[in-house]
Amino acid sequence: MITKIYIGSKNPAKINAVKQVFPDSVHLCPVDVPSSVSAQPFSDDETRLGAKNRATYLVKNMKAPMAIGLEGGVVDTDEGMQLCNWGALATDTGDIYTAGGARIFLPNDLAEEIRLGKELGLVIDQWANAENVRKGQGTIGILTMGEVDRAKMFRHVVELLYGQWKFHERRKERVSTKKQ
Ligand SMILES: O=P(O)(O)OP(=O)(O)OP(=O)(O)OC[C@H]1O[C@@H](n2cnc3c(O)ncnc32)[C@H](O)[C@@H]1O
Ligand SMILES: [Mg+2]
């Protein structure tokens, strides 16, 4: 049974996403950890690696039985720049699951600023004339008029992680009962 989950961030949007998925009895431990990728990841691979690094850091260095890493990034394409988001769930049994989140295109003037090397978290505050967007509704919340905010988007990612973990645990149980 899961009693404690570490989260590799103190960002409230990320913590809320995890809180919404697991039962109230599960104790959440948010810790700021290095993602060991750029502050503004620029591809799916880099963003996914950031999420994995956050989760595995907690298992290795904080002795977390289960840890979740969530990471936001962007992907530039021929048709414009997209938001991308990834999550990873790692366990002290050596398992790791990853899942990608929703993606939408950024308006071009916003994307141009990021191409200049600025971090989305800073750019969006100016662009939307708001403060700490990344800790609240997120860019995705601004661009969808609050229909899908950052916590809701990451909630889906966490559901995909938790669901995969449950599936594999069930499979392991079946295999061990067969062997008996
Ligand atoms: O404290 P941490 O967990 O690092 O939270 P963060 O907001 O910095 O989140 P990420 O490092 O995962 O995001 C990478 C970059 O993309 C920005 N970003 C990603 N998604 C965003 C969103 O929905 N709204 C605002 N900024 C976002 C973020 O501010 C960073 O500059
Ligand atoms: Mg960050």
Q: Looking across the biggest beta sheet, what order are the strands in?
A: 2-1-3-4-5
- Report the CATH C-level class: Alpha Beta
Bound ligands = inosine 5'-triphosphate, magnesium ion
Whole-Å distance between the termini?
22 Å
Can you tell me the overall shape? elongated
Q: Estimate nothing, just give the exact number of structural domains.
A: 1
With helices defined by DSSP (H or I, 4 residues minimum), what is the helix count? 6
InterPro entries: ITPase-like_fam (IPR029001), NTPase/PRRC1 (IPR026533), YjjX_NTPase (IPR050299)
Cofactor: Mn(2+); Mg(2+)
Keywords: Hydrolase, Magnesium, Manganese, Metal-binding, Nucleotide metabolism, Nucleotide-binding
Catalytic activity: XTP + H2O = XDP + phosphate + H(+); ITP + H2O = IDP + phosphate + H(+)
Q: Could you explain how this protein is built, in words?
A:
- It catalyses: XTP + H2O = XDP + phosphate + H(+); ITP + H2O = IDP + phosphate + H(+).
- It comes from Evansella alkalicola.
- Keywords: Hydrolase, Magnesium, Manganese, Metal-binding, Nucleotide metabolism, Nucleotide-binding.
- It is an enzyme of class 3 (hydrolase).
- Its cofactor is Mn(2+); Mg(2+).
- By secondary structure, the chain is α/β, with parallel strands linked by helices.
- The protein has one domain: Maf protein.
- It is 45% helix and 21% strand.
- It has six helices and five strands, in the order E-H-E-H-E-E-E-H-H-H-H.
- The protein has helices spanning 12-21, 44-61, 108-115, 120-128, 138-143, 150-179; strands spanning 4-7, 27-30, 66-77, 80-91, 96-100.
- Strands 2-1-3-4-5 form a five-stranded mixed beta sheet.
- Helix 1 links the parallel strand 1 and strand 2 (27-30).
- The longest helix is centred in the C-terminal third of the chain and has 30 residues, at 150-179.
- It is elongated, with a radius of gyration of 17 Å.
- The structure holds inosine 5'-triphosphate (ITT) and magnesium ion.
- Inosine 5'-triphosphate binds at residues 9, 11, 14, 39-40, 71-73, 119-121, 124, 133-134, 138-140, 150.
- The site of inosine 5'-triphosphate (ITT) has 18 residues, from strand 3, helix 4 and helix 5.
